[in-house]
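User: Predict the structure for this protein chain, please.
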Amino acid sequence: MKKNNFRFVDHSEDPNVGLANEEIALLQKELNIQFPETYIYYLQNAGRRSNVFPVEHDIVKLKKYQKQLKEALNERNLLNTESLFCFQYNIEYEPLIGEDFETFYFFNLSDPKSPDLYAFGDFIINYDWRGYAKELTNKENFVDFINERTKKKFGSRLLKKIGNILLGILLAPFIVTVLIIVALQVLIEKIKNQ
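Assistant: Here is the predicted structure, written as structure tokens:
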């Protein structure tokens, strides 16, 4: 597991803002759980505001999400005996179906050293018949999940490096030409002034 190897992108118009350690400790105390180490690191760097994947830090909402998740999973007899922590709940309108889709993002804390990340919510299962169903998806690794979202939003680091190199290669002849012209102009001015 890649420990705390998040790809955070510093974006001046949409910066990440973390939570203070005291705020994180208060959340854990109020919820009576210990957050996974990787999640604490994420909160420290992007817990208040994330330019990729915002997470909830309002204690009242978090308590409500825990109850909603338990109820939704109990209806389907899923993960009944597991220790879970829901850190985000989304409702988004799905125009293809014409209904609101809800999604819970949560950790299974039953194995605190390596908690799995899960998503539980409405997913389209048949585009032709506009069918959808509730599905439980194991995303396995929170770091990989965040980094994939970062890649989708900001692009791959490798592609950006290659693009910058190609841009440099394409601009190099132009820059050299401009420098030669400027040097010749300076030389001509010096010759005229003598």
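The chain is about 45% helix and 20% strand.
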